[in-house]
Automatic annotation (TrEMBL):
One of its GO terms (cellular component) is glutaminase complex. CDD domains: GATase1_PB (cd01749). The keyword Oxidoreductase does not apply. Gene3D superfamilies: 3.40.50.880. Catalyzes the hydrolysis of glutamine to glutamate and ammonia as part of the biosynthesis of pyridoxal 5'-phosphate. The resulting ammonia molecule is channeled to the active site of PdxS. One of its GO terms (molecular function) is glutaminase activity. This is Pyridoxal 5'-phosphate synthase subunit PdxT. The active site is at C79 (nucleophile), H180 (charge relay system), E182 (charge relay system). GO terms for biological process: L-glutamine catabolic process; pyridoxal phosphate biosynthetic process; pyridoxine metabolic process. Its EC number is 4.3.3.6, 3.5.1.2. The lineage of its organism: Bacteria, Bacillati, Actinomycetota, Actinomycetes, Pseudonocardiales. In the presence of PdxS, forms a dodecamer of heterodimers. Only shows activity in the heterodimer. It catalyses: aldehydo-D-ribose 5-phosphate + D-glyceraldehyde 3-phosphate + L-glutamine = pyridoxal 5'-phosphate + L-glutamate + phosphate + 3 H2O + H(+); L-glutamine + H2O = L-glutamate + NH4(+). The gene is pdxT. It comes from Saccharothrix espanaensis (strain ATCC 51144 / DSM 44229 / JCM 9112 / NBRC 15066 / NRRL 15764).
Length: 201
């Protein structure tokens, strides 16, 4: 059975562990480099990217995680996790560390400037229609050539300036969403990621 870790330094770790267990993998929290070495894939949860980035350095996980992502370990980041995976961040803190791996530019707290939380039904490539919950979420401003856009915010009165913004992407073994499928009880995005883990294994 595949083993998938959830980076457990800060954020909604438990919800991701539950969603992964329901997708029939062994799900484990990760706080140490030795634990990272044992997993086939990793999830970076939602939370606060500046706090997680600081803790990654404190727990000596920054370089090991960068290295595994570079080597091709399947990785999924939701919200703060997407920010950590982005090669460039707008409105980030100057001392914020990036794991990188995704050739995208994200704008941190992009939705948060209009409303703290926002929900929408999205058409998610390879998954279907998904009810997306955004909490002080980033959006993707730009994607590089190798990045596949999987979902955008649909046009609606509530969406305002967020309409058309990119909120789910994939680049090879790296998947990221601005929103939180772990909070809605819909396991399809996690199952999609688990399929990526199995295909790589
Ligand atoms: N605003 C948070 C950040 O900058 C992300 C919010 C979230 O993960 N729900 O990291």
């Amino acid at each position: 059975m595949s083993v998938v870790g959830v980076l457990a330094l800060q954020g909604d770790v438990h919800e991701h562990l539950v969603a992964l267990a329901e997708a029939d993998v062994l799900a484990r929290p990760i706080r140490r480099p030795e634990e990272l070495a044992e997993v086939d894939g990793v999830v970076l949860p939602g939370g606060e990217s500046t706090a997680i980035s600081r803790l990654l350095a404190t727990f000596d996980l920054l370089e090991p995680l960068r290295a595994r992502i570079k080597e091709g370990m399947p990785t999924y980041g939701s919200c703060a996790g997407m920010i950590l995976l982005a090669d460039r961040v707008l409105d980030g803190r100057a001392d914020q560390h990036q794991l990188g791996g995704l050739d995208i530019v994200v704008r941190r707290n992009a939705f948060g400037r209009q409303v703290d939380s926002f929900e929408a039904d999205l058409d998610f490539t390879d998954v279907g229609e998904v009810h997306a919950v955004f909490i002080r979420a980033p959006w993707v401003e730009n994607v590089g050539e190798g990045v596949e856009v999987l979902a955008r915010v649909p046009e609606s009165a509530e969406a305002g300036a967020a309409a058309g913004r990119i909120v789910a992407v994939r680049q090879g073994h790296v998947l990221a969403t601005s929103f939180h499928p772990e909070l809605t009880g819909d396991g399809r995005v996690h199952r999609h990621f688990v399929d990526m883990v199995r295909a790589a294994g």
